[in-house]
Every structure is written in C-alpha cells, then in structure tokens.
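User: We ran a pulldown and think these components assemble together. Before we commit to crystallization trials, I'd like a predicted model of the whole complex to look at. Sequences follow.
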Amino acid sequence: MTALTGLSIAEARDGLKARRFSAHELAQAHLDGMAKARRLNAYITETPAIALRQAAESDARLKAGDARPLEGIPLGIKDLFCTKGTLTTAGSHILDGFKPTYESTVTANLWRDGAVMLGKTNLDEFAMGSSNMTSHHGPVLSPWRRRSGNADLVPGGSSGGSAAAVAARIAMGATGTDTGGSIRQPAAFSGIVGLKPTYGRCSRLGVVAFASSLDQPGPLARSVRDCAILLRSMAGHDPGDSTSVDTPVPDYEAAVGRGVKGLRIGVPKEYRVDGMPGEIEALWQQGVAWLEAQGATFAEISLPHTRYALPTYYIVAPAEASSNLARYDGVRYGLRVAGSSIDEMYELTRAAGFGPEVRRRVMIGTYVLSAGYYDAYYRKAQQVRALIARDSASAFETVDAILTPTAPSAAFAIGEKMDDPVAMYLNDVFTVPASLSGLPGISVPAGLSGDGLPLGLQVIGKAFDEETVIRTGAALEEAAAFNHKPDGLAA
Amino acid sequence: MSEHLLEGATGPWEMVIGLEVHAQVISQAKLFSGAATAFGSEPNTQVSPVDAAMPGMLPVINRFCVEQAVKTGLALGARINLTSIFDRKNYFYPDLPAGYQISQYKNPIVGAGTIQIDFKDRPSRTIGITRLHLEQDAGKSLHDIDPKASHVDLNRAGVALMEIVSEPDLRTPEEAGAYLRKLRSILRYIGTCDGNMEEGSLRCDANVSVRRPGAAFGTRCEIKNVNSIRYVQRAIEYEARRQIELIEAGGTVDQETRLFDAAKGETRTMRSKEEAHDYRYFPDPDLLPLVLDAAWVEGLRAALPELPDAKKARFMAEYGLSAYDAGVLVGEQVAADFYEAVARGRDPKIAANWVMVELFGALNRVGKDIADSPVSAAALGGLLDLMADGTISGRIAKDVFAAMVETGKDARAIVAEKGLVQVTDTGAIEAAIDKVMAAEAQKVAEYRSGKEKLFGYFVGQVMRAMGGKANPAVLNETLKKKLAG
Amino acid sequence: MSLDKTTVAKIARLARIRVPEADQEKLAGELSNILKFVEQLNEVDTRDVEPMTSVVATTLKMREDVVTVPGDRDAVLANAPLSEAGFFVVPKVVE
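Assistant: Here's a predicted model for the assembly, 1071 residues in total across the polymer chains.
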C-alpha cells in the first residue's frame, strides 16, 4: 500500500481535482500494487492498458476542469459484468475465451462518469458461493490473517476478488453482485463496506445472470461514503432491463453524515440463532449502543419466517439458475467439447465446463422445477417468499431500518466447509432474507473477532430507501472507528 | 353432427381434429429484442445479443407485438386477458439459444373465442378457439449442407409468434382446411400475420384422434409442422385411417408426435421420443406480468376493420349476393375492396359476376394477385358502364376485357380503337334479320310451326352477320316481331 | 426426499450434464442432503398465499416497434467455437 492506494475514493476525488497527483499516477500505483499482490489471486484479468488509457483521458478532463463524478478513480470489476472486448469468465471454465461485444449498463455508467478499470476481479463460479473457492481460476486469498495462525483465509463470496482487492488496497472500490449475500458477506469477512441496493435499483443488463429475481449489482469500498459515491453512478433506470425500476437516483453521498437522530431501528429476534458466536452477539449489542448514543431508538421486531429464508433461497435461486445456465452449451461462445451428437456435445461441454457447486445447483434447480415436483418445491418456495416479504413490510410499518450481524462467523480457512454444501450455505443466513424481499442492505465493518478478523454489522432498509441505510451505516462506521488493516498487504 | 364418417372394417368412425396454428406476427422488430424480422435475409444478420442468448442479455417486450395479439383475439371474438404472464419453456435444441423459449403457459393474453367456417352446400359451423398466446419463434437448423453437421441460423429466433389453439371441434379434413382458410383470411384482414405457409409465417400442427360416433375421445397424435393446407388435409386423412386400422387390428394408439412425409403422403413417428419433454414451465423472472389498459383494448376493438363475416353479411344484404358469392368475394380484403369499388353505383350482381368469373379467371391465367391486377377496379367499372349504357353488348365486353387484361388500356379506348360500338340502329338490325330470314326460309317455317328452340339459331345468325355488334335486346325484340309474322 | 442414482441420471439428462456412473452415488447423496434441508418449508402454512414471482411492484414496460439492432453478423459469430459461411456449426441433429 502506498499513500495513493490507501486513499478513499472521496479523498482521491479531492486530490485529483486539486491536482495533488494525477490519474495516471493513481492508476499506476494500483497496477504496481496488483503486481505485488498476485498471490491473493484477486484478479482474473488485469487491464493495465485500458486503465492507463482511461487515466490519460481523465487527466485531460481534470486539466480542463471538466471532471466527471468518478474521474480517474481506479476500480475492480467483478468478472460477472460483461466488459466489451475484455475477457469475461464469470469464474467459469465454460466461458473460456469469451469476449463480449457489448458492455453491461452498470459498467457503462461507471465509464460514463470517468472511472478507470484496473481489471476483472475473481468470484465464485457464476456467483454461486460464499468463499470464492469455486472459481475455475483458483480461490482468492484474503489479505487478512488470524492472530492464531498462518492459514490462508477466504475473503467471502461470491464477490471475493472484489472484496480482497479493496481490502488489500489494490482497488479503490469495486463492483460486486449480491444474490443471497455476495456483496455483504465478503465485505464483512474482508473488513470493508459492501452495499446491496434495492432489487431493480441497478440494471442487470450485461451482468451474467445467476438468479434473475435476486441478482443485484452494487459497490464495495472502504467507506460508506465511497459506496454512496459509487452507487450514485451505478444506479438508474435501464429500459433494457424489464425489472429495472424507474425512480430517480438521489445524491446518496448527501445521506452520509445525516445521522440517526429520531430513526427507529428494529432488532429482529429471530436473527438470534442457535450457536451464534458470543462475540457476534456482543458486537450486535454494541451496534445498538452506538446508534442509541447517536439518537436512534430501538425496538425488538419479529420476522417470523426468518428461519425459512435459506431453504426458500436454495429452491428459488437454483431453479432460476438452472434455466439461466441452459444457454452455456458450447454452440455460440465459450468452451465446446466435441461430441458425436448434439446431445453428447451438450452433456460433455457442460460436464467439463461447470464446477461441482454449479452442477449441484443446476441439478437441484432442474429437479425442483420438474414435473411432479414444481408445486411441492418451487411454488411452495415462492409462497414462503411472499410471507418473508410480508414480514419485512409489516416490520417497516414501525421501524425505519433493521440492524443485524452480517455473517454468523468471521472468515474461515481455505478448504474448510467444502465437505457439506449445506454448511457453506449457512454463511448467508443473515443476508438472504433481504435478498428475498428485494430490500437494500449494507455491511459495515464494526470490530474484530477474538482472532483478529473483521466482523460486520448489517443495516437493512425499506425498498428504495438506500439513504436511510447509508446514513445509519455511516453512523455505525463513525462509532466503530474501524481502522484495522489486513496484514497481508503488499508492501 | 358430422356427415363425414370413415368406414372401417368394423363399422363407422368419427375423426376428432384440433389445430394449433403458429402465426408469425407482422412487426418491424422482434418480440423481445430490437432485431429486424424481415424474411429471407443472409444468415445471422438479424440477430441481437438477446436473440443469441449471450451472457447477461435480457428481454424487453415490443408493444406493437402485444397490440397485434390483442387485435387478433378481438377479431376472433375472444376474451382479452388484461393480465397475462410470460413463462419459460425449457428444453435443449440448437435453434433455441437460451435453452428456453419465452412463452405463455397458464395465463395467456387471449382466452376463448370462435371461428365460423362456411360451406357451399351445408350449414356453417362454429369452431371454438381455446386460447391465443404470444411466444418467441426459434431459429432455423439446416441439415442438408453437410452430412456430418447441422448449420444454425438465428435470424428467426425471437420473432413474435401467436399460437392459436382450436378446440377439438373439427370433424373432417375439409373442415380443417376451411378453418385454416378462414383463420388466414381474418389474420390478413387485420394485418397481424401475412398467412404465408410456404414461407413459414403460418404453421399448423394437427391433433388427430378417432372414436366411435358418440363415444369418448380417443388417444390423439400430433402431426407437426405441415406447411400447406392441402398437406394438412392429407395428413389428417392418412393419420385417421392409420389409427383406425391400428385399432381394428387390435392395437392401441400411442400418444406421440409425428411428422408428415409429403412425398409419401404418410405420417411417421419423430425419432427419439423415448423421453417426453419435461418443459419445467415457470414464470420468467426477467419479465413482469403484462397488464393491459382496458380503454386501450377497447380502442383497438373500435379500430378493427370490417371483418370477413360482417362484410359477407353486408354484401348479402346490400348487394343481394348469395352466401356463396359473398363468401368468395370477402375471402381476401383486397378482393372485397376491389369488388365494392366496381359495384358502387352499378348493378351489384353483374359486378359480382364479372369480378368472380372474368377477373379472377384472368388473374389466374396470367398468374397475378388481385393487388397487381392489370385491370383496375375503376377500369372494370368503366367496362360495365359501357354495357349498361348500351354502347357494347355483354358478348363484346368479354372481348374488350381480354384486350384490357393484355394491354392495360381502358375499355372506352379499346372499343373506339376496334370499332366495337354496339349497333342499336333498328334499321340495320331489321335489314340483317330480313336477310337471314330470307336465307333460312325452311327454318322460319319450322319455327312458325312450333319449333321455338330455333330462336337462338336465328339470334346467332344475325349476330354473326353483324359482327357481334348488334344490341341483343333490340335484336331479340325485332326478331321476335318479324318471326311472328 | 432421498434421490437415488436413477433419478440423478434422469435429472442429469434433463440438464444435459454428463454425470459419470462413478459420481452418481455421491451426487445423489449431496442432492438428497440439500433437498432435506429445503424441505423444512413443509412446516409453513401457505394456504391462500399467492406465490411471489417478483419483488418489483410495477408492471411490464413495453418498447416501441423499431429496429434498434443493426445486423452485425461478425459480432454474432465473434465468439463461436465453430462457424461456417455465416452459420453456427454443430454436430448433425436428427429429427
């Protein structure tokens, strides 16, 4: 980390405007850091030529006094976003060699606002996972280490590469996607801020689809303010995405610093799960205390169907995924394994191209949609989903925001939890409900575990009320004063 | 109800037929993407990333395609469902890039309606329409370019289709043909599909079963993708007989999908149907429910053109035409309009006769559509006017018409050019009659003694002597008087 | 619900993913575990509850009938593993 790569987006924005340094210098500092931190495997594809070209354009605009909102800010882009002319893999072997001829709307928005692309960050294959261990391009290593030992740890997932890059100061910010927690959980594991917007806030056009009714692009950065800045550029109605909502994008940055005075915050009793580590419970209560001290009032609320959120999610998401991934068949792009018939070609290509977790989920998804099982599984899950959404809607009649832990544990070691897929799924227990309801949620680093690893707190808000989520997150951030940095940074 | 029963070895059988028609919607762009829909372009030149199911692509629905489906539903007298849902129909095939087709399953845009089919010699029948829904068309696979490979063109992938499903109300191949003709006529009237079966913009799958009259429905087989009305009828005929033979020999009909081999005139099983398709329908999560504004739908209803049935009834009432004649004239809207332009202010029955017999006959001969008729409605009208005002006789008019078809000139010009003006001068006619009577004294005597049939002979002789130009009415009247003595 | 190898083979066929005989047992076990986990939903009373298919409270927006995508065959075929004379090429498909 250098002076430049340690800056926040807000600080860099000021520095660039004041010409204390150039966009070129800023980009180069990050590229140098990336080279030194390759061990983390945070990037699948580095894009130095693009970065420097964009930085040069930014410098020209900065010189002309014509700076756009993200002018010169170097970002990592999760390799789930299609970037025109640049390899896009979704972390999968089946998209080997795929270079989109089009750009995702969210990344187009970022380039429109002057951002700089450092590269495509690593992720769990097709965004399915909470550890970034399922990527065809190898796992991502967290820059964090336990006090008690040297084991390589996971950064969380599926946006593990983005989280690790931001935490390791080899990206100033990054894009992620969150389907069941894939922005919030890696942010918590990696000691950074991650924000999942309301479903429909950011466009899904050009984002490789995992579960269409749940996927939502969002920012990861080292501060709430930075996430707000990124969100403002990323968000907006897109007529090319039928599920994109046409509602104005407010100045999210302005919500930072508004404080929480008079806000009513709910603590859902069902989130107090069996076997929850004491330090997480303690941190949660600490969060309550911090916010009360700043003028918020707390109430216990009930979200009765909370414990059914994970099983609901693990029916709905795989079902949608099984259909979304049917297009990966070796015909028009990506990997093709030859076959003597078309069906053999499909079967061999997909067997070779998909990793075990993807295969499991596609098969579960196929099963729960199949004849005779649709009503018992898929339809049932959609009904329970409606009840889960109803729970939040009721709760939000009496509170403005909900405070919960982000994850049930700190980061675990690479290779752990691989024996039982269901054990891995439990990482998402606190994040999945907001996904099913389509509500916005932020994870803010709030403290360290006994073993020196980051722990996050989550704030969930009403639909399209990212401002309340941001101001509450910012208040937590201020109180927590989390200044810890991972040891595993490049020098 | 049905006169057409098939005679089997063990007694009569009734055919039960339902038709599923896929009609390609007339529109500029595809149902869920902005690619073009024109037929016959170079392969893969009308494909958007959405149509090719590239990663991250999403569907956005084309309002005009929705409008076309609603108009079609209205024209079928069907219920328009103001809320409908798009579902994914999942299966693997190389011309289906996404591995699913966006279609509608339990909540289609249009519900139950009817089509009336008419016959020359028996009462009309009302055939039920079960539903109409919107769905994507697939691309095309070509299997003949290479013995070991298939070639895929996605130009057609994503074009809007209306799937129109009939109740199993049809009982004969002829009824099936009449249904298809009527449906095609309606679609062309409202401009929602051009009904071109050769180009594939109208495709028909026929569901066929047989039963003893009055018994429960038998097991049906689906005959897929028959691409002409004639073939549909033949396929149904063959399939019904196949099933009857099978049952009478002690076998049972398996529910299956079959293809029609036009060369052999037979249906055969489609290969590899060991596993039935499990389409795993579920609502498409990339889309939301389609909600239509009732006022908008009513606006479309009000703007519908006069439909074939209504036009036929009006032609019968206004122009005094027979049901059959009116039915023929309204088959194509262009023809109906042509007829009305000719009939306006003229004798409608004469106009009908000239359009149906002379014009249609000529168009057939020169291989043209009425839209490209060498004789315009105004020109034909002009010809009728010359007959009506006595300038030419009906007989001469036919010659004039032939010349009009060939040269494109109008009637008046041709008549003038060829000096065909009718002779009404009684003096000239009397003189010609006198001459003929003088030369045919014997026949005159025979006529006067009762052989009245000879009148026509005399008419012919006089007409020939006058180069066909005698005014027939004057000739007849004068001849009658003279022969009477 | 416990899945056996035959069912796994059937699902694999539907999903067009070749699962070697040797893997089927283990996969059946994993899938059965997941199904057992999600079957908790049977505890929930969902009578008269409308299935939720979208969290978005609006209805479908429609676009104008205009051709917005120019025919760019090169882009369409740019990533094709095998193409020829403007077509995608696949092993022979028999009807």
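The first strand of chain A starts at residue 43 and ends at 46. That may be worth checking against your pulldown data before setting up trials.

User: Thanks, that helps.
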